[in-house]
Amino acid sequence: MFAERAMQQDQVGNTLLRSLDPSDFMAIAPYLERVSFAVDDNVADAGTSIDTIWFPEAGIAAVLDRTEGDRRLAVGLVGAEGFVGWPLLLGDDRWLHDVVMRAEKGTALRIDADRLLAAIEDHPSLRAALLRFVTVFMTQMGRTIVSSLIHPVERRMARWILLYHDRVSGDEICLTHEEFRLMLGVRRSSVTDALHRLEAEQAVRGLRGRVVVRDRAKLAELAGDTYGPPEREYRRLVLGASQD
Fold first, then answer.
1. Residues 114 and 212 in one domain
2. Does residue 95 sit in the same domain as residue 185?
C-alpha cells in the first residue's frame, strides 16, 4: 500500500465522511491518509490491536469470523458507505473479526486510532455520527444471521450479490465459488446449484471468477426480505432520508 495527503470533504469518496457535519470532518481531516489496496489485501486480524480505522472509498471490506479449524465465514460487508474498526467506539481496542479487501482494487482513507479517539472526545456529534453507522452494520449482521438460519441458499446468494453490487463500480463483480462459500457456508456443489437457479431466472450470468448482474429488480425479488432493512436504516440514520 502507498499513501498520499488527505483531500477536502467534498473530494473524498467515502459517503459517511461526506455526510459528516463540516466541523466534525475538519476535526479528523488533517489526520486522514489515502492508501491504495488490491483484492485480497489483509486489513485486520481478529484479536490484534486496533491501531488504524479505515474508511473505504472504492472496493469492499469483507468482515470475516473465524471458526474452529481456522475456517472463515463472512458476516458483513463495508464499502464506501462506512468504516471498519468500529469496536474501538464501543470500548474495545481489539479487532473482533478478520477484515480482507474484496471485489476490486481501490482506495481507503485511514486514521490512527488515537487521533480518532481524541477527535471524538472533543466532538460528541462525530462519535454519534459514526455510531449511527455501527447501528446500520449491526442490522446487516443480524440479517445475515437470520437469513442463514431460515432461507434457502439461492435466496441468500441473491442477497450477497446485491450487497456486492451496491458497493462496486459496475455490474460485473469478481466473485469466485470460494468466496461464495465464505458467505454461504455451504459446499461448492451447493454454490453451483444456487448460481444456476439465479441464472435460470435471468437475474445474473456466471462467468469464471465473476458474476454479472443482468436484472437487479429480479435479483431483489429473489432475495425477498433478506435484503432491504439495513439499507433503509442507512438512508434514515446516516443520510437523513425518510424511511421507505
1. no
2. no
* Domain identity same for 200 and 160: yes
Task: Kindly state whether residue 24 falls inside one of the protein's structural domains.
Answer: yes
Spatial distance between the Cα atoms of 134 and 82, rounded to a whole number of angstroms: 8
Block means of pLDDT (10 residues each) for the chain, 244 residues, are: 62 94 94 92 94 94 82 88 94 93 90 95 94 94 86 90 91 85 81 90 88 93 89 90 47
User: pTM for the complete prediction?
Assistant: 0.89
CB atoms within 10 A of CB 161: 25
239: in domain: no
CATH for 203: 1.10.10.10
